[in-house]
Amino acid sequence: MGVEAGECSELLRQLIQEALQWEASEASADSVVLSPISEYDEYGFPTVPNYEVEDLRLLAKIQALEVHSHHLLAHEAVEQPLRERWAALGELAPSAEIKQLLRAGVPREHRPRVWKWLVSLRVKHLQGPGRYQELLSRGQACKHPAARQIELDLNRTFPSNKHFTCPASSFPDRLRRVLLAFSWQNPAIGYCQGLNRLAAIALLVLDEEESAFWCLVAIVETIMPADYYSKTLLASQVDQRVLQDLLSEKLPKLMAHLGQRRVDLSFITFNWLLVIFADSLISNILLQVWDAFLYEGTKVVFRYALAIFKYNEEEILRLQDGLEIYQYLRFFTKTVCDSRKLMNIAFNDMNPFPMKQLRQLRMAHRERLEAELHELEQLKAEYLETRAAQGPAVPEGCTSEDEGEAEP
């Protein structure tokens, strides 16, 4: 499905004009000279997104330039003071200061240490000496039923990331072991599509297999609600309804616009929440989201989901056709380049955001969804009973087995 040439050209003209205006104003104010953009970022993701639509290649280059420019311009004003504050911290402990620092994003050199601490806060009651090795040994002794699906998904994990595509890379083998260990750790889930991307992000940041394993355990077993990654994905379905309610409350104009054009956002947002934006945001923004998410929990995911729509609200409102909107929503998260702007929307513009409200919405929608599923099961059972009572259908012109055996 492609974008119409006229629509795409108009979008590109707007983006080019905005990018050039932004570059000119920022360059004159700060006299920053841009250095060449490398092909991959520090985590192995391509710096220029590979959009499926050919006409969007120029957009990708403009976006990469904008991200690079923001990074350079913000370095002295924002990044360096942040690095100094993180470097000055001694032993990490929960505090209001840590919360604010995590929201602003952890510098790359501090992120592995900080994530290990955040994960430990979540799983220290589950961790035991030698637990990871024990699970790996169990996998060697007996093949897990999920092994085949895990193997299939290894090749689908971040196909544009050099660490998962390079034949000489150790990352696919390490990811396989993390996922197999988790399937033994949590037999109720075993493996669910999406867990590969969560574990891969953890592995890219933490680098150590065991640390990545415990990060996956922390997300699935202590942060996300129960049944989020079950076969029914019940809690995931509930959260889609919760997100719809929050969008209607926080962005009523946008939701009215989408409702009139019969746009179902769950086609886009289901994957956002399931894998914590792993497929959606450029890496520097994605990891900033995870910095706060690992500390504060699922409320952060909703804040950022709302913020992404707010960030792009005016562009979506300009689109008048439902198909146009769906085409735009397929790639629009990759155009979010200003991490500071997105963070301010998420944690300032989206207030108030009480956890109590989130729990109440989840409870109400879960009750409704369970009732709907129960009704569907009843209808299915009644249908099967009716079919069984009627006996097997015999096509016209054919005889049943009994008739075929009747005496002449």
Please give a structural write-up.
The protein has 408 residues and is an all-alpha fold. The chain folds into three domains: 81 residues, no CATH class; 131 residues, putative rabgap domain of human tbc1 domain family member 14 like domains (Helicase, Ruva Protein, domain 3); 129 residues, Cyclin A, domain 1, CATH 1.10.472. It contains 20 helices and no strands. Helix 11 packs across helix 12 and helix 14 packs antiparallel against helix 15. The longest helix has 36 residues.
Which secondary structure elements does this structure contain, and how are they paired or packed?
Layout: H1 5-30, H2 57-88, H3 96-104, H4 111-123, H5 131-141, H6 147-154, H7 162-165, H8 171-185, H9 195-206, H10 209-223, H11 234-250, H12 252-260, H13 266-274, H14 283-296, H15 299-311, H16 313-318, H17 322-329, H18 339-349, H19 355-390, H20 401-404
Helix pairs in contact: 1-2, 3-14, 4-10, 5-8, 6-8, 8-9, 8-10, 9-10, 11-12, 11-13, 11-19, 14-15, 15-18
Give the key terms.
20 helices; small GTPase binding; Helicase, Ruva Protein, domain 3; TBC1 domain family member 2A isoform X1; coiled coil; 3 domains; 408 residues; cell junction; single chain
